[in-house]
Amino acid sequence: MSDSRTQCIILAACLFLFPIVLMAQVGDSTKLLTPGVGCELGFGSNGHADVQLAIRINTPSFEHLVWGFSLQGGLMLHNTSDYYYSDNPNSSYDDVKDWYSFAFSLQAGYEFKPSGDVNPFVMVGYGFWEYSFIAANDSSEVNVGGKTGSFVPVLIGCDFKVLK
């Protein structure tokens, strides 16, 4: 099993454990953290599905300052038969399949109304991504993994209190 596929399975398992393990409060009013679950879908030629788990951690001495991290993983949903891969001039693969991605990022940000029923926030950070896929031709197949890079996430969002 490829590393990216293993990471996606671990990410999916965390999706079920995340709300149970990470909900925390001190007393009745001090919020320590906010868990988040999201998805990203692309359609057509950019078809993909990613699941994201995120958490924002409040700083007790500075109510509006938050720190966060997120994990994101997914796979391609569209037909990749038009793609090809070449690892050197003598080896070309005309079938690209089983495309997976994984990303991790850290952020710092500001919550405008951390104790309010509606809480807008903004965050910026730095992250790393990795993707892998299988490339094949009539005579062989190769697992292409470890393609990595970095990115700068900018998150703008709003929380709505649902329970008191």
Your description of this structure?
This protein is mainly beta and 164 residues long. The protein is built from one helix and eleven strands; from the N terminus they run H-E-E-E-E-E-E-E-E-E-E-E. The chain has one helix spanning 3-22; strands at 25-26, 30-31, 33-42, 48-59, 62-76, 85-88, 91-93, 95-111, 118-136, 141-151, 154-160. The strands form three sheets. Strands 3, 4, 5, 8, 9, 10 and 11 form a seven-stranded antiparallel beta sheet that branches. A two-stranded antiparallel ribbon has the order 1-2. Strand 4 (48-59) and strand 5 (62-76) form a beta hairpin. The longest helix has 20 residues, at 3-22.
String of helices and strands: HEEEEEEEEEEE
Q: Based on DSSP secondary structure assignment, what is the total number of beta strands?
A: 11
Rg is 20 Å
N/C terminus separation: 44 Å
- How many strands, what sense, and barrel or not for the largest sheet? 7 strands, antiparallel
- Uncertain stretches of 5 or more adjacent residues: 18-28
Beta fraction: over 45%
What structural category do the secondary elements indicate? Answer: mainly beta
Shape assignment: elongated
Helix fraction by DSSP (H/I, runs of at least 4): 10-25%
Task: Give a topology summary.
Layout lengths: L2 H20 L2 E2 L3 E2 L1 E10 L5 E12 L2 E15 L8 E4 L2 E3 L1 E17 L6 E19 L4 E11 L2 E7 L4
Antiparallel strand pairs: 1-2, 3-4, 4-5, 5-8, 6-7, 8-9, 9-10, 9-11
